[in-house]
Amino acid sequence: MSQISLEELQLAARNHALPLEALRFDITPIGLHYLLVHYDIPDIDLDAWTLEVDGLVECPLSLSLDDLRARPAVEVTMTMECAGNGRSYVEPHVVSQPWLYEAVGTATWRGVAVGGLLDEAGVRDGAIEALFVGLDRGVEGGEEQAYARSLPVEELLASDAVLAYEINGVPLPPQHGHPLRLVVPGWYGMTSVKWLERIELRAEPFDGYQMRHSYRVRMDEDEPGEPITTIAPRSLMVPPGIPEFSTRERVLEPGRCELSGRAWSGAAEIVAVEVSTDGGASWAHAELGEDRLGRWAWRSWSFSWDAEPGEHELCCRARDATGAEQPLRPPWNVGGYKNNAVQRVRVIVR
After folding, report:
1. Are 161 and 182 in contact (CB under 8 A)?
2. Is the N or the C terminus of the chain less surrounded, counting Cβ atoms within 10 Å?
3. Quick one: which of 295, 296, 275 has its CA closest to 342?
4. Number of domains the chain is built from
5. Same domain, 252 and 310
């Protein structure tokens, strides 16, 4: 793995990932949920803040947080993952936020259904996209911009997307988008715009930087590439034993070892998880736990391993109902996106 630069270290220091041992929690504690802040956390005067819903609507809306809380509330429990998760494992090296495996978390979000609010505003004929604009501003690709992304209206109206003002039963903290953010189940985290200030219904596709250039899979900088949408299947295990401080190499005693972890996919339900204890040379089926958290959240799995003395490389891979399965090796693209290659955990049994 290539060494990271000072610039990448700055990004890594601002953002944080899920400690893999926290996979044991069904719902990720807020402080352990992965976090990516593209620019700065904005300073928002809640007394002056409103959400504007405008563009191609019959009835434009201007709503305070109290107005939103007065509307019928919905909840969704969902696993959110950064599209750049696993970036540090691709070669050649991609310069960006240096994620390993852990840019993920599962939370329960409470707020107002996006579809219900759009119905209230009255989407006019000809509206094909809804643009979500945040209050966080920065410069990227040489362009000064507010972080903004769009979604097709038809998909939004049919989805479980929520304008969330709470996470895990408490108001959104500043780093997670207070006072309001979008959450879109099944899609990578870049879709869930934070510090939301405006929703604009549009007759043409939004051509902003985050849609035109960023978060697209392409093999060359000059290609338009394919937009990133739903989360590819992935599984992660809780590393067994205890870690060596700097290398995080695992050490454990010989004998029966219960391996466990989580698996998820944005496109379809998880149907299988397999585990390898020899670096992927052979595989055995793990046992899937009950689907207790709902369609959009990860699912637990477990596997019983007779750990014999020596060095081992543990791997896990998931498959969803579409037949999509994690690859053994990291795929490369310009942004280092959607690298869902199998997790590898080096273990010394002694």
Report:
1. yes
2. N
3. 275
4. 2
5. yes
